[in-house]
Every structure is written in structure tokens, then in C-alpha cells.
Amino acid sequence: MARFVLRRLGFIIVVSLGIVFFSFFGMRMASNSTSSSPSYDPIPPARYAVQETVRYMRNLSHGDLGTMLIRRGRRGIQTAVGDIIADTYPKSMGLLLIALFVAAAIGLPIGVSAAVHQRSALSLGTMTLTLLGVSLPSFSVAALLQIAEIYWYRSFGFRLVPVGGFGWDAHLVIPTLVLAARPLAYLARIAYMAFSEILDQDYIRTAHSKGLYQSRVMQDHAYPNAAVPILTGLGVSLRFSLGSLPVVEYFLGWPGIGAALLDAIRNRQDVGVAGMALVLGVTFMLINLLLDVLYRYVDPRLKEQAI
């Protein structure tokens, strides 16, 4: 297990270097494509990215994430990227964890129920709705929820929840629903497919033939065997949520690291883009590492498997 974890940590370091390199490379390419000066002769993007990556990693080894320009009206303030991340990262991760919890708490029972009642109208309707949920873009869900709230306010004269802004109260409702929509639908489909296959196995029929209650069969036989695909579904759901996070935060006025990253890209703050992209990338990879370790405890057959 220790060797496996060390290999994955080495992989994380290599990918982190790639994230920083392509952040600088992409920002230089964007700057070149929008430059209108005929005498503009920039350093080639690849060379620039290598130089900036080396400089960035050298500074990072001393705990320096650099500074970036934050615009306040017509003025700009140089702010430490580390301070921006320290302020925005907890807001994003809090929202992300709440959304994933909601998605798992609702999506998994829906998928299990649909699998237990296969070939019923409930199962067919549930799976159709989950297909729609997986396909619908996050910004469309956000717009629909905001429009619904506006219509409610116009019809009844009071609002149910705020349509934007930050707060660990009712402000959480719409961002959580938007971020949880695709993971919820995906987890429901994963649970449905996993349990549909498991409930058709011979050992499940044998357990029923022994007179065991459905709840006991599910607890002792079905749930343990479905743990690996469900953990995989959680990992994919995390990818959905992280991919949607910047758009959701920017669209709904949630001041998290995703919105800060989009601001840095718009204002061409290369160091800020590299730092925030690195933090998001490392977060995703560390969570995937944790899931990979959990796989090996859930399914002992994976412990001896070469990676």
C-alpha cells in the first residue's frame, strides 16, 4: 500500500508541473491571439511557459505563490495569490462538499429503489429524468432556477431563496442544487446499473430462498458488492462538480476559487491562473488518491493488483 501511495504522489507531482506549464502556455497563447500591435514579438509560448514554470516552482518551494492584480473599479491592487486562495478555497470546498452530500443522499436511494422495482413505471420515469439531469448544462439549471424564483416573487410578493450572492444560509440553496444536479443524476444511474446487476446474481436468489428479509439481503450482500462502482461514481461526480464550479460561482455570484480563476483569466493574471488551477488540480488528484486507497479496503482483490 505504501508503494502504491508513493507512486501516486509521484504522479501527482508530475501532473502538477503539467498544470502549471499549460496554465502559462495557455495564457501566453491567449495574449498572442489578441495582440493587435504589428511590432509585437513575444517570446514563443513554449519557451515562455518553461521559463515561467521553472520560476514559479522555485518560488513555490519557498512558499511564495506570487501576486496578481485585483481590480477595484478603475484601480488595481496587487494581492498575494496565497491570500486570495485562502479566502476563496474554503467557500468553494464547502459548497462542493454540501452539493456532493446532497447528490449522494438523494441520488443513491433513487437508483437503488429503481433497481429493486425494475420494469416498473417508477423505474422507467426515474431513469429518464436522470438522463435529462446528466445532459443538462449547469448554467441552464442555474438560469431555470433563477427564473423560477423571479416568477415566484412576482406572483406571491416574497422570495423563497436568494438568486445570488454568498452566505451559509438560504444563499446555499440554488448553488447547491445547480452543482448537485448532474452528480445526483449520475449517481442514481450508477446505483441503478450496479444494483440491477447484483440483484440478478445467484447468491442474491440463494439468500432470498433462505427466507432472509429484503433489507437483510441488501445490507449483507448487495451493498458491499456495490461499494466499488459507487465510489467510482463519486469520483466522476467530483469531476462534474469541479468542472462546473467556476461557471456556477461566476453565474450565481458565489465568491469562490472558481470565480476568482475566471477573473484571473479575464484580467490575464498568469501567476494567479497557475496558482488557482494548481490548487484545484491537486485537490482533485488527492481526492482520487483517497478513493483509490478506499477501493483496496472495500475490495481486497485490488490490494495485490499492480498499478
Task: Give an overview in words.
The chain has 307 residues and is mostly helical. The chain has a domain at 82-268: MetI-like (MetI-like fold). It contains 10 helices and 2 strands. Strand 1 and strand 2 (75-80) form a beta hairpin. The relative contact order is 0.14.
Brief overview, please?
With about 300 residues, the protein is mainly alpha-helical. It is about 75% helix and about 5% strand. The chain has a domain at about 80-270: MetI-like (MetI-like fold).
The percentage helix is over 70%
Rounded radius of gyration (Å): 23 Å
The count of helical stretches stands at 10
Return the CATH class of the domain at 82-268.
Answer: Mainly Alpha
Q: What is the beta-strand fraction?
A: under 5%
